[in-house]
């Protein structure tokens, strides 16, 4: 059989593992794909660092992706440019693409999909979300006959490591981040992870696939974990909950304000300690999928790292190679539903609000009155204080579900009241379809 020739863009942690697996499993990959899968070239910025790759190396990525002897381009560079230009050039030149680039897919996935369609080639990206976990193929193929209602999960290992460390030891956010950096989980600039952008890109990709609708990173409401304190983790524990950075993609039925719509959001939230996602600790990822006929499904595994991510890349590569051997294509982008994206303010969420207030008669009633004035129903309120009229008291309010905008407006007003010394924390409480969240 004529070999399938692969151009690899980038040779970092994931790229090295792709090269290793292509080499070590050459015979089995050939048997599975129906033709040998060979490296045609590896484009890197600094060739001298990869001398062992010999003649395969080039610093001319643009030349490599359009070379006549290349069938498939595998991109593991990450970031928007030069990846976008290179992949568009490759697709235009009739090469299939396998990419792990979540940021690019979340920002400009439709442009890549359209370029793939125009040339009749494949665009696969299993490695872009949750590393080794087979998740996109189940959403796109296995569940193609079902109606997905929610995809919610932990899709960032760095933040899950930090939150798990805080919960296990009572450590502060800063100390847990330092440990994550020391152990190599967090990067020197941890912003993409701790500010939620990495998870938001993944949420956009998941929502697009699950709901057959184009959702991009700008559509995803995103909050990170920098403001989560040891006190928040302890407060969650008293509610029978843990705090996780969640990516939540939901289909919402039509209501008086909107037709059927979808939403995608990333934020730290309390979830019941009994929920399967609560026991996902350390750098692991897990995603909970709910579909009308299938019910609840959970996908769990390693969401990052060289070998786990390369496993997903190789799976895509074999699929693309098979399609080439058989003369066909895999599934294309499916965005036919084109549902509107619901603004965050209209979503209904529960909140856990913790306030430091003046400790004197009538303050609790002033506080609860503000919730009532904004139409936010309180599920539970707890006050602790000396009651001597001089000091401060702590008030914790847990609400029923209410529109985000009403909850945010309530908190804004509370923060400005004379009797409020400070708003300690505002955290969402997500039961994720489970009954029995405390409060
Ligand atoms: N930095 C990501 C994480 C892995 O911590 O999970 C790549 O998306």
TrEMBL record:
ACT domain segment(s): 352-428
EC number: 1.1.1.3
GO process annotations (BP): methionine biosynthetic process; threonine biosynthetic process
Keywords: Amino-acid biosynthesis, Methionine biosynthesis, NADP, Oxidoreductase, Sodium, Threonine biosynthesis
Cofactor annotation: a metal cation
Biological role stated in the UniProt entry: Catalyzes the conversion of L-aspartate-beta-semialdehyde (L-Asa) to L-homoserine (L-Hse), the third step in the biosynthesis of threonine and methionine from aspartate.
Record's protein name: Homoserine dehydrogenase
């Amino acid at each position: 059989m004529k070999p399938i020739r692969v151009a690899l863009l980038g040779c970092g942690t994931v790229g090295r593992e792709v090269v290793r697996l292509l080499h070590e499993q050459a015979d089995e990959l050939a048997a599975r794909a129906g033709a040998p899968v060979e490296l045609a070239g590896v484009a890197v910025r600094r060739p001298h660092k990869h001398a062992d790759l010999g003649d395969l190396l080039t610093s001319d990525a643009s030349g490599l992706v359009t070379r006549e002897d290349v069938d498939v381009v595998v991109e593991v560079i990450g970031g928007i440019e030069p990846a976008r230009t290179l992949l568009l050039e490759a697709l235009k030149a009739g090469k299939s693409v396998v990419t792990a680039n979540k940021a690019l897919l979340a920002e400009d996935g439709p442009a890549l999909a359209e370029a793939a369609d125009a040339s009749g080639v494949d665009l696969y990206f299993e490695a872009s979300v949750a590393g080794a976990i087979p998740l996109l193929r189940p959403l796109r193929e296995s569940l193609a006959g079902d109606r997905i209602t929610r995809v919610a999960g932990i899709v960032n290992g760095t933040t899950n490591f930090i939150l798990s460390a805080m919960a296990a030891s009572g450590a502060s956010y800063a100390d847990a981040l330092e440990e994550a950096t020391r152990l190599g989980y967090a990067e020197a600039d941890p912003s993409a992870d701790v500010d939620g952008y990495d998870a938001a890109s993944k949420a956009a990709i998941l929502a697009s696939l699950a709901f057959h609708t184009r959702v991009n990173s700008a559509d995803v409401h995103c909050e990170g974990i920098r403001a989560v304190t040891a006190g928040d983790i302890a407060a969650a524990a008293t509610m029978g909950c843990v705090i996780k950075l969640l990516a939540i993609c939901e289909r919402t039925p039509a209501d008086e304000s909107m037709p059927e719509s979808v939403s995608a959001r990333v934020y730290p939230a309390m979830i019941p300690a009994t929920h399967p996602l609560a026991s996902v600790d350390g750098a692991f990822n897990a995603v909970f999928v709910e579909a009308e006929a299938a019910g609840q499904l959970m996908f769990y595994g390693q969401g990052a790292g060289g070998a786990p991510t390369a496993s997903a890349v190789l799976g895509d590569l074999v699929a693309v190679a098979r399609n080439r051997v058989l003369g066909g294509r895999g599934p294309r982008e499916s965005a036919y539903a084109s549902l509107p994206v619901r603004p965050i303010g209209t979503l209904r969420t529960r909140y856990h609000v913790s306030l430091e207030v003046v400790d004197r008669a009538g303050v609790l009633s002033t506080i609860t009155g503000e919730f009532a004035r904004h139409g936010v129903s309180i599920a539970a309120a707890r006050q602790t204080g000396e009651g001597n009229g001089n000091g401060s008291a702590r008030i914790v309010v847990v609400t029923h579900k209410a529109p985000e905008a009403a909850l945010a407006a309530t908190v804004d007003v509370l923060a400005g009241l004379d009797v409020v010394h400070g708003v300690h924390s505002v955290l969402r409480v997500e039961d994720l379809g489970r009954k029995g969240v405390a409060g």
